Input
Amino acid sequence: MKTEFILEAALAIQQIILANENALESLDREIGDGDHYINMKRGATTVAEMQADLAPLKPDEALNKIGLKLLSTIGGASGPLLASFFINMAKVLKEKGHESNLKIATAFASGVQAIIQRGKAGIGEKTMLDVLIPVSNQFVLLATQNCDIKLICTSLIHTAEQGMLSTKDLIATKGRAAGLGERAIGHIDPGARSCQLMIETVCKLVLDK
Amino acid sequence: MKKFINNVDNVLVESLSGFAKAHSDLVELNLEPNFLTRAEKAQNKVAIISGGGSGHEPLHTGYIGYGMLDAACPGHVFTSPTPDQMLMAAEAVHADKGVLFIVKNYAGDVMNFEMAAEMLPFEHATVLISDDCAVVNSTYTTGRRGVAGTVIVEKCVGSLAETGADLQACKALGDKVNNRTSSIGVALTSCTVPAAGRPTFDINETEIEMGVGIHGEPGRRRETMRLADEIIGDCVQTILMDFKTRNLQATKKHEVLLLVNGFGATPLMELYLIYNTAAKLLNLHNLEISRSLVGNYTTALDMAGASITLCLLDDEIKQHWDSPVHTAALRWGK
Output
């Protein structure tokens, strides 16, 4: 992984978040409190504007800096959760290196683990983890099997989408929608949707290379 | 959306600046990171710090001052503040007796305060507010939300801290008041987050949202609009049932504090009408309202609606509720 790729991904993520303003806002209005898009936009824009600061850094340093910036920019639940992801992923990349798909997958999984611990949530609670946990498991599995990175990315796009769609039929037990009971059924979780969009965007960048 | 706005991105900072100017005798504003402290920093006491998303004014900035908070950290509208705000606020106001965070129980607030607490170099504790009985607690959920009962906790804990009580005593009183307090809200309209530009949820002229949260997040049930007596009757019943389920009883004096809180767009005239109904019902249940508060104390931007909060008083809580307080939004005895 190169810092150049992280910068490219940051710009692509900002674009996809901005392009999905209406979709994310309406999902959050249905079962949340209407601030998800605004927070994601603030985070994505801040990171996109860090290009010059990040460019000279090593990949792990860049991810760590992104994490710390998100922690003081986004707020809400997404702030500490996404920040924990980047900070922990950076930590593992620094310790173990980033020269193979497996090392990157392991670091990604450790980032997801940090979200699980911070949010005290797991799979099936109608949150971003319904996307991130399956994606992380699949990433580690395929990387362990030495699969080609393009095949991995194609598969992860599919896994992320399945995970996002799975939140539709769930009752929320974490987050703002937890107060809704059965009324949350039939609505996709906005956090799961934005995570799926970000994963799809990064994977497509790899596929286009 | 029809609101007093210059630039939607500056609403919070312009509002905080106005607040700081209007109450320059009481508070001092720091921007980037955003936090407010008392104009005169207190000595020899536990530092009481609260914070949360903006849009609930006067919560929490309006409660900075003698007898309540030492500092408050306002986040963006309906979005929790970030750990750097809490760290800088704690740095600014701590007086060697530790820091007590008062946090409303929402995933974002809990996580951001938790991360701040982990990084804090001083002794600290947290009181988590969870007075909203509309959201049923279970091991599977985030738990009950913190709503207008926060004002009672901040008042009582703030009063105890002024006496020089230690951190554990302040936390214990905060936990006790929270435990003896129960609230439920009802919305007649939605609210509009300035940056979103349109109402958070749709609700028509004949509907009400029972158990609504202070961010306009839906409650448990959408109901048909009814007479005030019927709506308030349901609210009071829900609160009394909550106390019963949690095995909480009033003391022998049967004293309660009744807080009728407006969400931002309900006139005081209606809030007093609600109070009148609630008072009659509570008397029927042999409860004596020995303390009361009516007004906009924990709002949800421009939502029409109100919440009812009951606190089962004992001598200690009563003493700390009655003690002098001097803040922008609550002031008596000083």
